[in-house]
Design a protein that fits this description.
With 439 residues, the protein is α/β, with parallel strands linked by helices. It has 12 helices and 20 strands. The strands form 6 sheets. The chain has a 5-stranded parallel sheet with strand order 2-1-3-4-5, sandwiched between helices.
Length: 439
């Protein structure tokens, strides 16, 4: 019978470090590792360090040295790990170094150097978790809740203020998904552009390197997995401009889902929308100058209380000018508990519907024209589903479920989840038709 893998643990520092140690020890025990109190019995040693003052640095470096001497296999975590290269420079033999609050990273290092025993009772759940999406794409939620108070929305009342997930946790989940075969990561939250605001963009750690809890840094780090990365629910704040170059460089998909909701300043103000005062048309123009192929998706509401014909016309003018690629539209619905319900001059139901129909008609024309321009282009698509005479796939401009499709005509064998190079040969208001490019 296989022996239980055993871990020795040295915990230094303040109560916060102790809590980190407890989290790691809990995970180790839950995964079936034995915890031992001496170096000789241990297969590997984790040292949780302190780096607050010079004497603590010294004590931590000594503890690492002792563990290396007595055991040889050492993983370092904690505050000293966050202090640049000091650990690696003094003790280059350590197997891995992380900063504080890094349970996932420490566990990943332990798994790499001391694999856990297979347990038929607990190992039924795959490392990437149970997913409801097909195997080749996955949603990854980076935060919960929202700091805004849009008057038509009750999410903050239901889920509270923004709480960002630690960046190493998000990265770890993304890594597990990619290892399990996921080809497209869809980043979601209530407000992706606000990621990290609640923790003051705290510096976390990933693969031993500091990484800020911030949308741009996260997008760039995710791009290193070599799969498609798509951003949803991004608001047009100035700092969003920073992710556009990543798109132009091909690191993440040139796709932005920006829920503008309206274009009349009066209505945006009544909606209390984030970034309501930004000049969105100017911003879109600037984004497209940096990344001409950028696909922008948005959603709008017609019939918000107090919306006049003039407000609605402004919205149509905006759409005409903005030439968005994908648009969804909803009529205003008075959700119970939403403060907008108290705004005067509700718009009659038929008028809301009529405005929605006018909006969609305008957008269909814009969309059809934009798609026609793609005919003749060669694009990479990801295959979602086999179909008669070919397959349904998606290009960088199409998020699953909400956007269009690329129907690939082919007699050859196509596999779900594979990337194909195709030439676009036809289009309509929503979808494209393509054929594989022969090499
Ligand atoms: S940004 Fe506005 S609409 Fe979106 S979740 Fe927050 S409050 Fe609701």
């Amino acid at each position: 019978m296989k022996q239980t893998p055993k871990v020795g643990f040295v915990s230094l520092g303040c109560p916060k470090a102790t809590v980190d140690s407890e989290h790691i020890l809990t995970r180790l025990r839950a995964e079936g590792y034995g915890i031992v109190g001496n170096y000789q019995e241990a297969d590997l040693v984790v040292v949780n360090t302190c780096g607050f003052i010079d004497s603590a640095v010294e004590e931590s470096l000594d503890a690492i040295g002792e563990a290396l001497h007595e055991n040889g296999k050492v993983i370092v975590t904690g505050c000293l790990g966050a202090k640049g290269d000091i650990v690696a420079a003094t003790h280059p033999q350590v197997l891995a170094v992380t900063g504080p609050h890094a349970t996932e990273e420490v566990m990943a290092a332990v798994h790499a150097h001391l694999p856990k025993l297979h347990d038929p009772y607990t190992d039924l759940v795959p490392p990437q978790g149970i997913r409801l999406t097909p195997k080749h794409f996955a949603y990854i939620k980076i935060s919960e809740g929202c700091n805004h108070r849009c008057t038509f929305c009750i999410i903050p009342a239901l889920r509270g203020d923004l709480v960002s997930r630690p960046i190493h946790e998000v990265m770890h989940e993304a890594e597990s998904l990619v290892k399990a075969g996921v080809k497209e990561l869809l980043v979601i939250s209530q407000d992706t552009s606000a990621y990290g605001v609640d923790v003051k963009y705290r510096t976390g750690f990933w693969n031993g390197k500091p990484l800020k809890t911030r949308m741009t840094e996260l997008a760039e780090a995710l791009s290193e997995f070599g799969v498609w990365v798509r951003l949803h629910y991004v608001y047009p704040y100035p700092h969003v401009d920073e992710v556009i170059p990543l798109m132009a460089e091909g690191k993440i998909l040139p796709y932005l889902d920006v829920p503008f909701q309206h274009a009349s300043p009066r209505i945006l103000k009544a909606m209390k929308r984030p970034a309501a005062a930004e000049n969105n048309l100017k911003r879109i123009q600037a984004w497209r100058e940096i990344c001409p192929e950028l696909a922008i998706r948005s959603t709008f509401i017609t019939g918000f209380p107090g919306e006049t014909e003039d407000d609605f016309q402004r919205l149509l003018d905006f759409l005409q000018e903005a030439q968005l690629d994908r648009v969804g539209c909803f009529t205003y619905s008075a959700v119970e508990g939403a403060t907008a319900n108290a705004i005067a001059d509700p718009v009659p139901e038929e008028l809301k519907e009529e405005r929605k129909a006018r909006l969609m008609e305008l957008q269909e024309g814009i969309s059809a024209e934009r798609l026609t321009r793609k005919v003749g282009q060669v694009q990479t698509v990801l295959v979602d589903e086999l179909a008669e005479g070919g397959a349904f796939a998606r290009s960088y401009a199409d998020a699953p479920e909400i956007d269009g499709l690329v129907y690939v005509q082919s007699e050859d064998e196509i596999r779900v989840g594979e990337f194909l190079e195709v030439e676009i040969v036809g289009s309509d208001e929503h979808d494209l038709v393509a054929v594989p490019v022969q090499d």
